[in-house]
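Notes to self after the Tuesday call (sharing in case useful).
The group wants a holo model before anyone commits to mutagenesis around the pocket. I volunteered. Ligand is inosinic acid. Logging inputs and output together so the record is complete.
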Amino acid sequence: MNKQIIIHDKAFELFIPEAEIKKKIKEIAEKINKEYKYKNLFFVVVLNGGFIFASDLVREVELQCGISFVRFTSYKGKVSSGNVSQLIGLTDVVNDKDVIILEDIIDSGSTLKYLLNKFNDYKPLSLKIAALLYKTNPIIPKEDICYTGFEIPADFVVGYGLDYMESGRNLRDIYVMK
Ligand code: IMP
Ligand code: MG
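Result:
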């Protein structure tokens, strides 16, 4: 039986061990090392979930590159009752750069779609996506992700940067909710 853990009120079992994640990240980095040799590489990391994926990946990349971070903040509108999501951190530092967006996971695809639209206000030389985990969705087709770690079913996962109710981000392996 796979290793099991409890986070808050839910049980999770081991899904992708650390060694497999590390191997996959090395493969992605090798591709980037080849494909961006003569380019102006710049990583845009989506927080919070992307922080561990990004820190492991960029240290396997042997090219000169820049790194910057963006984040979605969700706040309750004072007038409207709806949740409003805002993007912070995207600046014109990405102009004239060969940008790779680093995402922990593509689930519905709506976060990434929103972020890609925001890039229309800037002028990157090129724009590609790397996602550690990909769930099949109707918004972002698989072919649009240049560097994919693992294609996974539509189950909830935690660890290696990903949280369940703000816990579990520091787990070395990825676990799936039972
Ligand atoms: P989206 O549905 O593609 O817009 O994903 C939005 C965000 O939800 C992701 O960037 C993650 O931070 C989070 N998320 C989606 N699926 C999971 C999951 O299985 N575990 C933990 N976080 C998730
Ligand atoms: Mg995320």
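Two things stood out.
The helical segments are 18-35, 51-58, 110-118.
The chain has three helices and ten strands.
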